[in-house]
Amino acid sequence: MTTHHIVSAYDEELASLGNRIAAMGGHAERMVEQAVAALINADQALARKVIADDLVLDEGQRWIDDQSIVLIAKRQPMADDLREIIGTIRIAADLERVGDLGKSIAKRVVAVADARQPVQLFRGLEALANLALTQLKQVLDVFASRDVAAISFMRDRDEEIDAMYTSLFRELLTYMMEDPRNISPCTHLLFCAKNIERIGDHATNIAETVFYIVTGEQLPLERPKEDKSHKVVMIGGKVIRA
User: Fold this and answer.
1) In a domain, 3, yes or no
2) Which of 5, 91, 107, 169 is the most exposed place for a label (fewest CB within 10 A)?
3) DSSP bridge pairs for 235
């Protein structure tokens, strides 16, 4: 439910925070999409664009932080308004981190392009990225609509992202064992896969923040929040899951 204040400028100031979050969210999505596309297609020009675009999210987070401090000092918000402002700061930080992860993927394009790997590895990365980006897009839609009914489902879906990442982790290790020449490029792909998995974690963090903004309540702490790659081991020259 939207609250309207006697001072209309206050409503406009709060709305400006939400608008900036929406802009940052769209920009973060594009960065990740383009970073993965650059990786798959060995597109170094697109990778450089993604790296340069990260500045937009850095500036967005700084603007959110500055405006929020001014708003708190000037309006002395309480209850719903205070949760809105604090939540916005937290979401901006998560989106800025998503941009950093996209930039990290883009930085590895050159290293991976020098020794192309089997196409199924890139398909696995693309599938993982699509799942994480779907999670991010949906939670940003919830932030815009304030319809928190789907948040518990989205929160649980993080398990699916972790499971897919663990499977890809095993596959990459297998390729590294089969041919030592694969070690360097597959190591870079492992970092890319982990970055994508972390994007899903940030989307889940945003979902929890939106729930708190809307309801004033925290979601339970108990939720799967890690992949199972630490259980993958090599025995007898084979990659297995412990």
Assistant:
1) no
2) 5
3) 238
Lowest mean pLDDT among 143-152, 186-195, 220-229: 220-229
Q: φ and ψ at 241, to 5 degrees?
A: -105, 125
Token look-up 């999670």 returns 135
Q: What is the CATH number of the domain that holds 160?
A: 1.20.58.220
CB atoms within 10 A of CB 104: 18
Residue 167: inside a domain, yes or no? yes
Q: How many whole angstroms separate alpha carbon 104 and alpha carbon 90?
A: 21
Range of the domain at 88: 8-241
Stronger pLDDT, 105 or 6, i.e. the higher one: 105
Total residues found in the chain within this entry: 242
Handedness of CA 162, 43, 107, 182 (dihedral sign): positive
Burial of 230 (0-12, 13-18, 19+ CB in 10 A): exposed
**Cβ atoms 35, 122 nearer than 8 A:** no
Tokens of 153: 């489902």
The strand pair at 232-235 and 238-241 is best described as antiparallel
pLDDT value of position 41: 92
Residue 50 within a domain: yes
**Position 214, amino acid:** V
Where are the extended beta strands (E) located within the chain?
232-235, 238-241
The whole-angstrom separation of Cα 30 and Cα 137 is 11
Give a yes or no: residue 1 inside a domain.
no
Query: What is this structure's pTM?
Result: 0.87
- Total domains in the chain come to 1
